[in-house]
Amino acid sequence: MPHTEDSTEKRFEDIHQAFESIKQKHRDDLGEKDVRHITGIRRYSRVFEVIGRGLIWILPGPFALLGVPFLFLHRNLEAIEIGHNVLHGQYDSFEKIPQFHSRKFRWKAPMDEAAWRQEHNGIHHVHTNVYEKDPDLNHGFLRTNSKTPHNKWHWFQVPIYLLFVYPTMLYNFDAQNLGNNDKFRERRFPLGNKGYATFENTEELSDADRNKRHQRAVWRVWVKEYALFPLLALITGYGFFKVFLANLLADVLNNYWIALTIQATHLTEPLQPEEALRNKGKWYISQLDSSVNFKGNRWQSVLWGHLNYQVEHHLFPDIPAHRYPDMAIEVQAVCKQYDLPYKSNRNWWQAIRNYIGVLWHFSFKDAKPTTEELCYLKQGVENVK
Amino acid sequence: MLSKWSRAAHPWVMKILGRDWVEYIASNTMNVVTQKVDPFLWTYDCKAEVVAIRQETPDTKTFVLLPNQHFKQPLPGQHIELSAVISEGEKAESRCYSLSIIDENTVSITVKRNPEGKVSNWLHDHVGIGVVLNISSPRGAFIYRGQEKLLFISAGAGITPCFSILNALESTAKRPDIAFYYRSRTPEETIFRSQLESNKVRSPVDISYSRSIEPDDRVNVMPNQLMDAYPDIKDRHIYLCGPDAFKKEVLSFLESIEYDFDNLEVEHFVRFNQDLTTLRKLDEDVTVTLKSQNISFVIEAENCDQTLLEAAEKKGIHLEHGCRSGMCGTCRTNLVSGQVSGNQLGKTIYPCTAYPASTQLILE
Ligand code: FES
Fold it and tell me: B-chain residues within 8 Å CB-CB of A89?
């Protein structure tokens, strides 16, 4: 069939409708099941917390390490399967669980909720992989495409990120969401923020407010992990530093885990055109093109906050995440029908390797190609069935 | 009723920590246990505890309230909305009350018993110290705006917002030129009489009685004699508050002297909790209330084809949003009452792709 303007428009519209109908089906089905899921996860999180903190508290010396995995599980569930998903508003429509409504929820993570909602939901999810628009595309000082100007920091991006940034990932994200990374680049980079998305101060916060919000987000975690629980141990006759160090370890593991989960699910290339947003069909395609899944079973997926279903998450960010495994089957069918990209890695390890490969590639000055050319929407609709 | 222990602790906690820190700590430690331990602090709602009650006149009481952390610091002259379930199983009733006294951690409402009034009778008869009330954050535009010459005209319980502005101004260094006219029935029924007559108030205060003659030879100024009492009345900004009949009387007098109505503030209560969900007709305006931001705004009939997000932005109100096309979920918020058309999921609505459908909309 010859391709005309009209037939491409119709194609985009069909694609839009196909994804909308998957979304609608799950919206109609929301109910008790979703409430049970989130409250169930919270219950697990509490149990892990009690076991983890208990073991760390009472077991002598290195044996206290036995508690760390449990504490890690608690912090991890709270941070992503609960926190991330709740702050997307996935559970807003259930009246009886106000504690899981996106505007009321408080994260047990060093992240300011309102700033995160704006940066993550309002910008990253809308302008995914758009050059100078998506703050998560190259957060901090990362270079993940050849369009971003190269400077000397980028030569070392792989070791610096693996050794220093990922262990403190959430803290860095909070700084980014409140605009502190812009200041770093302004000071250190010859071209300042060129090639990077800058902070959009939608709440019109003053510097003092931003600072206060950042401090408050961080200190609520630190006081609990590094003062309250170590002190409780101390006054009951156990070791302060034992608890302090075990909590620190759980904190670092948690940050690292989350960093590797989210980094490995954004291929970071190809860059997407900003105009995609103007057409819903194109927007869905650009989301497909900038996300990549990796496989895991149901329980593993919970530990990744279902972000290993990044494709589904980016298509339907406000549908409860535990539904993504089911939605994936439907999404794949649509992709097949319209010959759309559906990217998936065999496992987490492969996803991480691919991702680090990209980081490594773009740490060199004249890395080619410009990733824009790989963009599905830019390849010309003629290639498309 | 709160336990004795928490009753003693609340004023102290609010005083030492302040609302901002209490909010930070309580919201980050909210869970089923803390919510049971102290539902006054660990709550998502704005509440206030009655910490003292004073009889002002035979039928008027002042309730001193200690609000929790969700309360915003009020401006003198503002009011709160109080909602209460008066009889078991019925819908909550809501009323607005001006704040008569504003202190650092407490605020007061002064309530006159209205023989037919449900809420005022309930407050007088059933509310004692320690009772926790559901209130709103302060709101209203009956506030001082830096004018140099003022005249307060009030009657009956309408004195409350005027009294609170007067109090605030009396203690400022550069006190404006204030005149205070208050109409009451009898000396016994005069609210805040002793405060008004004490020498702490340096501005001239004129109390006139409708039902009794003062023994001294004070002139009893009638509303239509205001011009004689205040020859410079036309140069003064007027703050008017009182029963409807009184307000009408004063307004028609002001009209007769061709007073400039731009300089007039009339107290006007903004009620959020009234359920007025009627479907909108094509030519009707819509009032939208944003509870979290404690504001409301009107969408004119001709603009009702705009999305809620656009309409709010037109009025300079910021709503969280992202894609503006119903896909990212950033804008979602919950409907408290009213109806919308377009993108919605149960009580959750997407302002970027939803349109007003009832004359009144209340959003979380
Ligand atoms: S702004 Fe994206 S859904 Fe409304």
Answer: 329-330, 332, 348
Helix (H, G, I), strand (E, B) or coil at A123: helix
Residue B320 Cα to ligand 1 midpoint, Å, equals 9
* Stretch (H or E) spanning A84: none
Ligand 1 pocket residue status of B187, Cβ below 6 Å: no
CB-based contact B320 A126, cutoff 8 Å: no
Which of B28, B292, B330 is the closest to A122 by Cβ? B330
Percent of chain A scoring above 90 in pLDDT: 71
Asked whether the beta carbons of residue A98 and residue B44 sit closer than 8 angstroms, the reply is yes
The domains of chain B are located at 4-135, 149-266, 276-363
Prediction ipTM score: 0.89
Q: What is the mean pLDDT of residues A35-58?
A: 97
pLDDT tens sequence across A122-165: 999 999 999 899 988 888 889 988 888 999 999 999 999 999 99
Q: How far is the CA of A232 from the centre of ligand 1 (A)?
A: 45
Domain B4-135 of CATH type 3.40.50.20: no
Q: How far apart are CA A336 and CA A21, in angstroms?
A: 16
- Please give the CATH topology (third level) of the domain spanning B276-363: Ubiquitin-like (UB roll) (3.10.20)
| Spacing, Cα A31 to ligand 1 middle (Å) | 22
* CA closest to A215 among chain B residues: B24
pLDDT of residue B3: 77
CB of B328 sitting under 6 A from ligand 1: yes
Q: Identify the CATH number of the domain defined by range B149-266.
A: 3.40.50.80
CA separation for the pair B221, A23 (Å, rounded): 70
User: What is the residue range of A306's domain?
Assistant: 5-383
The stretches in chain B having pLDDT less than 50 are: none
Q: What is the pLDDT of residues A75-105, one digit of tens each?
A: 999 999 999 999 999 999 999 999 999 999 9
Which residue type, as a one-letter code, is found at position B84?
A: A
pLDDT, position A1 = 42
How many domains does chain A contain in total?
1
Contact indicator for A71, A244 with CB cutoff of 8 Å: no
Question: Which residues of chain B lie closer than 8 angstroms to A106, CB-CB?
Answer: 27-28, 30
In A, which residues are within 8 Å of B333 by CB distance? 92, 103
What pLDDT was estimated at residue A383? 46
User: DSSP characters for B71-133?
Assistant: PPPPPTT-EEEEEE--STTSPPEEEEEEEEEE-SS-EEEEEE--TT-HHHHHHHHH--TT-EE
